[in-house]
Design a protein that fits this description.
By secondary structure, the chain is α/β, with parallel strands linked by helices. The chain has twelve helices and 13 strands. It has a nine-stranded mixed sheet, sandwiched between helices. A two-stranded antiparallel sheet has the order 5-6. Helix 5 links the parallel strand 3 and strand 4. The N and C termini lie far apart (41 Å).
Length: 355
């Protein structure tokens, strides 16, 4: 049955979307399992803000540093999670943020590519209720169909299929639970947008699956990271300067929130909240903090990232001109002084599951 569904999906895809110029399959990059230290990087620096205050107040403070061009009709791209998912960003934090700074905004989501509790719009809406996302409108972007946005400079795609409602918005806030990911190695702002804005039947299939075979998850490692990143580039190019990024480093399982209650136990310490107007800088800073932890603290997360070649997300964002992998890290808890990732990772407390 799944093969029939996939064949039908790919049957409506234009070959011009799925192949490179001259009909030659692109060659993925390499070294997605190799961490590049800060001093080995080149280029300009962006600004990333950091607070250790994991609370609604901390979330608001981090967001307000990077909210200057968020105006008009705003979509808050949030992973709302599978039923009773234990690690998603607390709904009360999001509620407080939206009440103070994002009045009139909608949470935006898309349906999943896998069959489950968010596969169809009715299933998805039931899950939203279970998880308490009832304090503001939630727009399931692909509820009424899809649209395509150009992928400028992509080698895998010329365009990406996204939820059709996405173009109803003037600005987007990527509010991301930073964590591991079964296929991507880690899930930061890049994953939140690249997978989260692609619609559930077409866009996600383009990213995950080679047409004509049974395994819908066959695309992996560097090729997957590059496809996902190109999918991200389409929406952020569309919004231009009217998109911003907030990453919450809390309850960081090596599993994505799409695994819900089946997620692997959290063993990585909580860190804080980071924000930037540069998607690469904010994801890179989170990765740098992970790598700056002690071996015991980061062992599982680093293994997950490197075994999936997830670091290719960062190097490919840089190749596509999506941001800078060098940054000024501003400590909001200590007068706005510049700190290093190692200082942000210093003195972390072991994760304790909150009842």
């Amino acid at each position: 049955m799944k093969r029939i569904i996939l064949t039908a999906i790919f049957g409506i895809i234009s070959c011009s979307v799925m192949t490179a110029q001259n009909n030659q399959k692109p060659i993925p990059g390499t070294n997605g399992n190799k961490y590049i230290a800060y001093e080995q990087r080149t280029g300009n620096e962006s600004v990333v803000y950091f607070t250790r205050n994991l609370s609604a107040e901390g979330l608001i403070k981090a967001y307000e540093q990077v909210s200057g061009k968020i105006e008009g009709h705003v979509g808050v791209k949030l992973h709302t999670g599978e039923p009773n998912g234990p690690n998603i960003i607390p709904r009360e934090w999001v509620k407080a943020l939206m009440a103070k700074d994002l009045r009139g905004a909608n949470i935006i989501e898309t349906n999943t590519y896998y069959e489950g509790d968010r596969y169809t719009t009715p299933q998805h809406r039931k899950t939203l209720e279970v998880n308490g996302w009832t304090f503001c409108p939630v727009d399931i972007l692909d509820e009424d169909g899809t649209t395509t946005l150009p992928v400028n400079g992509g080698k895998w795609f010329r365009k990406m299929s996204v939820g059709g409602h996405l173009t109803n918005y003037d600005a987007m806030v990527a509010l991301t639970h930073f964590k591991g990911h079964t296929q991507g190695g880690f899930g930061g702002s890049n994953k939140n947008i690249g997978i989260g804005c692609a619609d559930g039947r077409i866009g996600k299939a383009w990213i995950h699956t080679t047409p004509g075979q049974d395994n819908q998850w066959d695309i992996a490692e560097e090729e997957f990271m590059e496809r996902m990143t190109e999918s991200t580039k389409a929406p952020i190019d569309y919004f231009g300067q009217h998109v911003t990024y907030v990453n919450v480093m809390r309850n960081m399982s090596v599993s994505c929130d799409c695994e819900g209650i089946a997620a692997e136990p959290v063993v990585t310490p909580d860190v804080g909240i980071l924000s930037s107007t540069d998607i690469l800088a904010v994801d890179q800073a989170c990765i740098d903090i992970i790598y700056a932890m002690t071996a015991a603290e980061h062992h599982d997360m680093v293994e997950r990232i490197e075994s999936r070649h997830g670091l290719r997300q960062l190097s490919y964002m840089k190749e596509l001109g999506m941001g800078n992998d060098r940054y000024v890290l501003i400590d909001l808890d200590n007068g706005g002084r510049r700190i290093t990732a190692a200082e942000a990772a210093k003195g972390l407390k072991p994760f304790v599951k909150k009842q």
